[in-house]
């Protein structure tokens, strides 16, 4: 769902959501610049939100870079300028949550919306793009 959320955000904003600078010479499988961008916006992941996080080898082994720095959650609205109470923003924010099985089932309910619900999403996306075009 994360990848779909990132693609959805790129469709809405016409730019990559969390574009980091790739460090090719590092043995660390995490791209720290990209993680930094993600954590600044969405906050630091927690075991409460992502129960299997503690089982990830890189999470356990890289205390300094991954766990050592604490981030404030500036919020998705700081980089995706949509109405926060709107359906498109709601769908996007749910896609970018750390997914538990319960979260996936809730998201599935959103995907299973009626035609009128999808029309609202598409209308909101269209209005967003019109407002961005007017700024150019």
UniProtKB/TrEMBL annotation:
EC nos: 2.7.11.23
Cross-referenced InterPro entries: CDK (IPR050108), Kinase-like_dom_sf (IPR011009)
GO annotations of cellular component type: mediator complex
Span of the signal peptide: 1-23
Reactions accelerated catalytically: [DNA-directed RNA polymerase] + ATP = phospho-[DNA-directed RNA polymerase] + ADP + H(+)
Membrane-crossing residue ranges in chain numbering: none
Keyword terms of this UniProt record: ATP-binding, Kinase, Nucleotide-binding, Phosphoprotein, Serine/threonine-protein kinase, Signal, Transferase
Name of the protein this chain belongs to: [RNA-polymerase]-subunit kinase
EC top class, as a word: transferase
Gene Ontology molecular function, alphabetical: ATP binding; RNA polymerase II CTD heptapeptide repeat kinase activity
